[in-house]
């Protein structure tokens, strides 16, 4: 028995005043609704409805149970609606770390337009040419070139690029995240780009151009 389905069947029967009408409103067979209520009564060890050939009405126990069940169902519906309303729209906070030159020349110029397209995101962009401990420093996504030395991190190739400071060597870019299922585009949501951390060496590097 699904407890929420049974509670919904009971509430619907009380509201409709009829098992038949309740079943129609729920899109279920009458026998299914009757069975759900019987299973609910068995679980609660209480009789919730008084049934006659002409009518159905809640018992004293049913009257006491009804408002509690209704409140629970409303909370569940509201929670599901809240999640559905945000589905597909990126939101939250994201801390990203990229090489200094790439941050200054590629990421920083595009950040304003990116946030305008995704107003529910906030991004903290850190720039460093040094190795970053993602877990200890709380970084969600890091972009680096070459092989990934830490096998505990998940990496996803995102492309190849010429060296940004002279030379013509090609480097494969890897997106390393703390989550084994995350990627550069879908990792944990962003953190404040307009307000970088004042004491962050990574953010100072972005402003001054120094690693």
What's the helix and strand layout?
Elements: H1 3-16, H2 19-26, H3 30-44, E1 49-51, E2 56-58, H4 60-86, E3 92-98, H5 100-117, E4 121-127, H6 134-137, E5 141-145, E6 154-162, E7 170-177, H7 201-208
Parallel strand pairs: 3-4, 3-5
Antiparallel strand pairs: 1-2, 5-7, 6-7
Helix pairs in contact: 1-2, 1-3, 1-4, 2-3, 5-7
User: What are the secondary-structure elements, in order, as H or E?
Assistant: HHHEEHEHEHEEEH
- So, the CATH homologous superfamily of the largest domain? Periplasmic binding protein-like II
Outline type: elongated
Order the strands across the largest sheet as they lie in space. Answer: 4-3-5-7-6
Summarize the biggest pleated sheet: 5 strands, mixed
Q: Number of DSSP strands?
A: 7
- Give the termini separation: 60 Å
Percentage of residues in strands: 15-25%
Give the overall average pLDDT: 75
Task: Write out key terms for the chains shown.
211 residues, alpha/beta, D-Maltodextrin-Binding Protein, domain 2, five-stranded mixed sheet, 7 helices, 45% helix, elongated, disordered C terminus
Notes on the protein architecture:
- With 211 residues, the protein is an alpha/beta fold.
- The chain has 2 domains: 3-86, Arc Repressor Mutant, subunit A (Orthogonal Bundle), CATH 1.10.10; 92-208, 3-Layer(aba) Sandwich (D-Maltodextrin-Binding Protein, domain 2), CATH 3.40.190.
- It is 45% helix and 20% strand.
- The strands form 2 sheets. It has a 5-stranded mixed sheet.
- The longest helix has 27 residues, at 60-86.
- The N and C termini lie far apart (60 Å).
- Residues 163-211 have low confidence and may be disordered.
């Amino acid at each position: 028995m699904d407890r929420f389905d049974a509670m919904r069947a009971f509430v619907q029967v009380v509201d409709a005043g009829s098992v038949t009408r309740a079943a129609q409103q729920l899109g279920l067979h009458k026998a299914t609704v009757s069975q759900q209520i019987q299973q609910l009564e068995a679980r609660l060890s209480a009789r919730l409805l008084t049934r006659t050939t002409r009518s159905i009405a809640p018992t004293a126990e049913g009257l006491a149970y009804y408002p509690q069940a209704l409140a629970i169902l409303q909370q569940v519906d509201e929670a599901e609606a809240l999640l559905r309303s945000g589905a597909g729209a990126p939101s939250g906070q994201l801390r990203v770390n990229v090489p200094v030159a790439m941050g200054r020349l590629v990421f920083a110029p595009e950040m304003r337009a990116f946030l305008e397209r995704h107003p529910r995101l906030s991004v903290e962009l850190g720039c460093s040419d040094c190795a970053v401990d993602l877990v200890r420093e709380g970084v969600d996504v890091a972009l680096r070139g070459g092989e990934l030395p830490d096998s505990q991190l998940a990496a996803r190739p995102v492309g190849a690029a010429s060296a940004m400071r002279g030379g013509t060597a090609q480097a494969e870019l890897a997106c390393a995240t703390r989550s084994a299922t995350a990627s550069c585009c879908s990792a944990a949501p962003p953190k404040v780009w307009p307000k970088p951390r004042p004491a962050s060496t990574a953010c100072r590097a972005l402003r001054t151009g120094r690693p």
